[in-house]
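Example record

One chain of 291 residues, shown exactly as stored in the release files.
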Amino acid sequence: MQSQIPSEHLLRFIQESQGATPVDWSKPSGGHTEAERWIITLDDGRTLFAKAAVDGLTAGWLNSEFGVYSQLDASYLPGLIAFHPGELPIMLLEDLSSGDWPPPWDDSKVRKVMNTLELIANTVPPSGLITMEEAFRSSIGGWRRVQEDPSGLLSLGLCSRGWLEKVLPIFIEAEESCSLSGESLVQADIRSDNICFFGDRTVVVDWNHACIGNPMLDLIGWLPTLYFEGGPPPWEINTSEKGLISLLSGYYASSAYKPEPRPDSTIRQLHFKCLKASLPWMGHTFETQVY
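Predicted structure tokens for this chain:
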């Protein structure tokens, strides 16, 4: 259970770096890691978003994010205010809490995100990023893991054993032939709680998984969450990226039934919702009706 008060070293860094005293704070919604996350109000009236590492894993993620924010100047990135390196890094960013965080979705917002994904893909990647091959190659194999033990997926009641046995060889082949290579900047975690419409900007947050590779991953990864939040069905937007669609759906199929990693986590609920959207998407992509 996370504390309801920011850590002492976080408050001290804010005061030292900003020349103002934190007088109020609140926890923003979202977030699927243990990192400290706060909206901080200062005694001079300014507000900012603060994120602090609590262990080696979250420290690595903050350092990765800083590598993106410190090297790129783009309207789709939150403004970087300050960064404290060290064993437990701290990052202060522009406060976007007053922006429009979807859902709900409409055609205009969907178009804005599509345009932003193009901007990201056309951005020269910052130095220091790993390739998508390095980041996601271990994630490939979801459908093969399901083949080895289908009981977890079948326990969710989203498909029958007969359908699964028929399609698994097709899905495995598509997943294992998935192309991750490319030269584009990829955010690799596009979903609504990482997207904010702030004035005339479409801002994307949480860049700790950023990498270099196939830019279609950002689109394919976003479409399931867009669908279960009221947007268009993913198969109306793309059925040509069979490898990536198989990769993502296989990941959800092999993880949605697992227990939450910690008591306050909702990541498996998210995986289940994405799987419910992804199975009919696979059906449309491979012309096989789910039953």
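Notes: The mean pLDDT is 95.
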